[in-house]
Design brief:
Layout (H helix, E strand, L loop, with lengths): L16 H12 L8 H6 L4 H11 L5 E4 L4 H17 L6 E4 L26 H5 L8 E4 L9 H10 L4 E2 L4 H4 L8 H17 L6 E5 L11 H18 L4 E4 L7 H13 L9 E2 L10 H21 L5 E2 L13 H22 L4 H28 L7 H11 L1 H8 L3 E2 L7 E2 L5 H17 L11 E6 L5 H12 L3 E4 L6 H11 L3 E6 L4 H14 L6 E6 L2 E2 L8 E2 L1 H6 L11 H6 L3
Helix pairs in contact: 1-8, 4-12, 6-8, 8-14, 9-13, 10-11, 10-13, 11-12, 16-17, 18-19
Length: about 575
């Protein structure tokens, strides 16, 4: 079996499962789940209980994410959104709170890192305030379970009354540069899931956003279903929890959204209410009128599916400015009101949907997913991994990576000309979109047989989990003749410097999305200077923003990057010419 396992620790050194489960049981016995205003208003003990009530009543639910970096701004945002929607005759059931990435780091290490653009809690009282502002249930995903601080954050969230906590997928893709504590992180991950499992009868649910993990990097939707089964196997069968998957950011095909939702229902052994369906952000750009069209397209599909097969997933209207900046509360309200109209019109469409065909397509994905799941589990067993040990499985899966998993165990037919050597059973929307954009760019460039970048070595990577832009740039410059060295996602500055030296490249093209463009660019240039790497050309694209000057909301930092000497043109049509000028 030709599999490279890039281990960062010896998985055999993890404590045995009995010890992990015992520790989790002890921790869980020392506290109880808090009560939020939402719980009091609706007479429920958990979000899952509320969702089951809504399913029985035939009512849809809605969700939004708030990501401001101070409690005062977050508290005011809660009030503005809730009261604004109430005045508009609308509603919202849950609010996801985006914690800053340093919240995923143990407190004793936080002073080593630059905070990003999101919320940081210092005390349990600050955590508790989440559910005491308005009667909307708080949800916690980013930098909770899967981070270096999984146990502490999970306990704090439960004590605050938050009963849907994630994000399991981030264990595989989010990194904390400068802290090599992977053994500790994996043990923490297992314990946090097991703590949630201790409260499953009280309604505690494990949120897992496929788009934030390997799900964003698979090319075949059937393999993605198989990956979701692997996550369920680890969290449910081995650690005893209950998983609520999320997806949608990377699903541009509206019908595929419905098909995938049905497939997720088919593999949900315990009938756990879903988390929320992310809005499609692939189609969002700077053209607000087009964003309106995207909002209506995906939300209508999500609504129709929940009307026919109610499974507890909340609809998530993405504000129209999402691709431009961190949206304001007023822009969130606007998106919700637009989706309310979709809810009014959806019944006219639902009865004409060919549900037999939808379910048939879903069954194809599930069949492929089952094969992928079995192939991976059997391979791990052959490699000597204990397939009944949650930590050993997760650690090795992370060390193998999504590309190798898909190449080695994917269910598509083999084809040497396909992107990963296989023709997908059903390609993901992101692969369809990447192919379309890069084909359009290349057709406009009209490269000769010998491209303008022939002989040049170019390093590419993404500062976070999002690889959409990176993949487009990589494929375009490869077509232009460059030798491309792809560092993947969530790259560290040290990794960039080492690769530049090893490859002899003088160009690094970086994608970024998570509101840290200026800090990352600045730290990168300092590191390159310290390593005596002169004449290196840095290009950054994506969402070039960050909170600066005490702002609660990230602002565009393109000009600041340019002042430092970083190319921030953010234009795929000109990138080949720009790189060629460095030849």
């Amino acid at each position: 079996m030709d599999i490279q396992i890039k281990r960062r620790f010896n998985e055999k050194e993890l404590p045995d499962m009995q010890s992990v489960l015992g520790d989790a049981k002890k921790i869980a016995s020392e506290f109880s789940i808090g009560e939020t205003l939402f719980m009091k208003k609706h007479g429920v003990k958990s979000e899952a209980e509320y969702k089951r009530n809504m399913i029985k009543a035939g009512k849809l639910m809605k969700h939004s994410v708030i990501g401001w970096n101070s409690w005062s701004a977050t508290e005011q945002g809660f009030k503005t959104v809730y009261k604004g929607l109430e005045r508009a005759g609308s509603f919202i059931d849950r609010l996801g709170v985006a914690l800053d990435w340093v919240m995923g780091v143990p407190k004793e290490y936080r002073n080593k890192f630059q905070a990003g653009g999101s919320l940081i809690f210092q005390t349990q009282e600050e955590w508790n305030a989440l559910g005491q502002v308005v009667p909307v249930q708080p949800h916690l995903g980013d930098h909770m379970i899967g981070s270096l601080n999984s146990v502490e954050n999970t306990v704090s969230g439960l004590r605050a009354g938050v009963t849907a906590i994630g994000n399991l997928a981030q264990y595989f893709t989010y990194e904390y540069p400068g802290l090599d504590l992977e053994l500790y992180r994996t043990e923490n991950y297992m314990k946090a899931i097991a703590i949630m499992a201790e409260f499953k009868d009280a309604g505690a649910v494990l949120h897992c956003n496929l788009d934030d993990g390997y799900g964003a990097q698979f090319h075949d939707v059937a393999n993605l279903v198989g990956w979701a089964k692997l996550e369920r196997y680890i969290a449910e069968e081995l650690l005893g929890g209950r998983v609520a998957h999320t997806y949608g950011n990377l699903f541009s095909d509206s019908v595929l959204r419905i098909v995938f939702n049905r497939a997720m229902g088919m593999i949900d052994k315990y009938g756990t209410p879903g988390s929320f369906i992310n809005g499609n952000t692939i189609d969002y750009g700077t053209d607000i009128s087009r964003n309106y069209g995207a909002l209506c397209s995906y939300s209508l599909a999500d609504i129709i599916c929940q009307m026919k097969y109610p499974s507890g997933y909340a609809i998530a209207p993405v504000p129209l400015t999402e691709a431009i900046r961190i949206p304001s509360a007023e822009e969130m309200i606007e998106a919700h009101c637009a989706v309310d109209m979709m809810m009014e019109k959806a019944p006219y469409y639902e009865k004409f949907i060919n549900w037999e065909k939808i379910n048939s397509e879903a069954e194809i994905l599930v069949t492929g997913g089952n094969i992928f799941f079995e192939r991976v589990i059997n391979a791990l067993d052959d490699l000597g991994i204990d397939i009944n040990h949650a930590g050993q499985i997760t650690g090795v899966l992370k060390a193998i990576g999504p590309e190798q998993l898909e190449v080695a165990f994917g269910v598509g037919a083999g084809d040497k000309n396909a992107m990963r050597g296989r023709v997908p059973i059903r390609p993901t929307s992101i692969i369809q979109t990447i192919s379309k954009i890069q084909d359009d760019v290349i057709s406009r460039q009209k490269f000769e047989e010998t491209g303008p970048l022939t002989g040049m070595n170019v390093v590419v990577g993404s500062t976070d989990v999002h690889e959409f832009g990176k993949e487009i740039i990589k494929n375009v410059i490869k077509k232009a003749g460059a030798n491309v060295f792809d560092l993947g996602t969530t790259v560290s500055i040290a990794e960039i410097a080492d690769t530049l030296i090893e490859t002899g490249s003088n160009v690094i093209a970086l994608g970024t999305y998570n509101g840290m463009a200026y800090s990352f660019g600045k730290d990168l240039l300092i590191s390159l200077k310290e390593a005596n790497l002169e004449g290196i050309h840095v290009l950054m694209g994506g969402r070039l923003n960050e909170p600066v000057g005490g702002s609660d909301i990230p602002v565009d930092v393109s000009d600041m990057l340019r002042e430092m000497g970083i190319n921030a043109d953010n234009n795929v049509d000109t990138i080949v010419d720009v790189i060629a000028s460095y030849k």
